[in-house]
Amino acid sequence: MVGVSDGRTSGQPPMAATGPVGRPLLSLALAAMLDEVHAHSGAVYLLAPDQPVLEMAVMAGMPRAFAAPWERVGLSAPIPVAQAVRERRLIWVGGEEEMARRYPRIAVVLPYPFALAALPLATGANAYGAVFVTWPDAHPPVLSDWEREHLSAACDRLALRLERAAAEQRPVLPEPDLLAAPPAGGVAGALGSVEAARMTARLPYGLASLDLHGRVSFANPAAAELLGLPVAELLGTRLWASVPWLNDPMYEDRYRAALLSQHVTSFVALRPPGEWLSFRMYPSTTGLSVRISRARAVAELDRPAPRPGESPSPAGLVTISRVLGLAGALTEAVGVQDVVRLVADEIVPAVGSRALMILGSQSGRLHVLGHRGYPNLRAVEQFHGTPLTAPTPSTRVLSTGVPAFFESRRQLERLYPVRQPVRDGFAAWAYLPLIASGRPVGTCVLSYAHPHPFPADERAVLTSLGGLIAQALERARLYDAKHRLAHGLQQALLPRSLPRLPGFEAAARYLPATQGMEIGGDFYDLVPTRPLAAAVIGDVQGHNVTAAGLMGQLRTAVRAYTTVGQEPQEVMASTNRLLMELGVELFASCLYLRLDPADGCAVMSRAGHPPPLLRRPDGRVRVLDLAGGPLLGIDAAATYPTTRVGLSPGSVLVLYTDGLVESPGTDIEDALAELGQRLGEAGDLPLGRLADLLVEHSSAARERIDDVAVLLLRARGDD
Predict the structure, then answer these.
(1) Which of 49-53, 108-112, 339-343, 355-359 shows the highest mean pLDDT?
(2) CA-CA distance, 708 to 660, in Å (whole number)?
(3) Is the model's pTM score more than 0.70?
(4) Which is more confidently placed, 383 or 699?
(5) Phi and psi for 672 in degrees, rounded to 5?
(6) Cα separation, 661 vs 706, whole angstroms
(7) Considering only CA atoms, which of 519, 450, 467 is closest in space to residue 489?
């Protein structure tokens, strides 16, 4: 039974058996919707009662197999129906190119020209599901206003009926999909007249009619002769199932392409031992007409013929589609927790399981790398630390690399009589070995709420998915190890804490770039040399270990030159010469300040660095146009003039690297103006809170194609 839920905090009481919705609510609403906007297929999804998952309830106009990879999808999945529910708005995809750009996972599985609209089924209080409808490629790339209004109004009406059904505790019963009924068997029934049947029997080429599922509902004698099977053996079967040499996913793919795009589609196929046949498909919303003839020229075809005795590929297109779609999802995983999240959001709903656990091994024991869906966490904790020698399914699968499937708890306990101290509450399990580079790296455990048979084709799919998860997991663990190394190096090179400066308070923030190893060359430092003090901020070119190492050398050099009493321009010149002598062929920008609290001023020297911002106590903000020289590391003879700036008590200096204000498509002047406005409005906040606010509200800092360093100084005037 399909329930009604908002997927989060419904607030509705559980459904009682007060009486189901009497009429086929969903299918009637979907049929009317398709008719109103002249769409040729669509589906209704409902939110699962106790989990953030959309489940397909009714499909119309196309076989459900076309959307098999998305019969169950997580709300966080990057597909249109899930996005429509998350954002509570209509999602429009105008064609094949837009689908490939915005939703590449769908485009990989359904690479055909069609347009799609997805809308939420939601009221002001709750979300109940979503609807999608599709049009052939002939639809304009823009959804018209009247189509948008009709679809929105229809979904609003259906949402209100679902809300009323939920309030009255009336469940929405399962409903059959809406497909055109196949024509009656027999020639006369298919064509409408005996004379028409006689005419097709006289034609020299084959004619066949397929329903939306691809089943043969009519074939003339010429078609039977060309295909090599009697008409009686063809009727009611799929061509690629009944004709052995057509049992290839490529040919089924052409049928799908014709139905989805509503374009005439053709292909040629080799009938053993050496005769090529041409197939031309003429689609409609009720099926396809197929013209079959001998191909006149096939010289351009290089598809190899099957070898004698070689059987066609047994893999169905739906199976391949599912694996491709989920493989696309896993390519987005970066760290181990990303793998766990994507498997939970994409694979768990697709295969119908309710919980997931990913196990790895370390020092001869199992380690839980991540889990989702277990109501009792003690059931997860008991796996952690299990010796690999223990007689359990998870250890056996990890050590042997052989998957294990248990259709019921009885079967599991018969094969593994040693019971776990805490039961997980599930009734069937799939234990998948995660094998990468020829070695086991972990075990993926999928748990099912009810006894679940695992037929051979499903076992093959799950085992294939295990290999994809393993590759993603191995990449993720390597990334996590590099990230820990990079993070440790970065933390070692930056100040652990800011020292107290005479006459000033300070705050700093550092954010690594979100690309690469998350390690870069941005640095800052404070040097208390009473009665004066110094501050420095800089940015070494690059985002790698070399840049980080050079950053550490420059920071140390600046501290040393400051400590021996060099003036600001001398500190910059000495650091520049050092960088040239190191011969690393990297440049660096830098801004150096000598702070004098007694005189209430700062002497600044700049080397190609973004200008600082100064907020006066009255709230006025200006960008300091400082004199300066070129980037460090370009010219050994470069000079770096200084500028004296007064700092009355309450003034705030904002020093930053270019990652705070520079991003693709953003004018730096506009970014500086926005930063200045924010500083003027919030400059009286505590300095740490002000630093957080400046970083959080920077669009460049959110995207972070570059490192971001921010150093704030507020003159106190009390020392």
Answers:
(1) 355-359
(2) 6
(3) no
(4) 383
(5) -65, -40
(6) 10
(7) 519
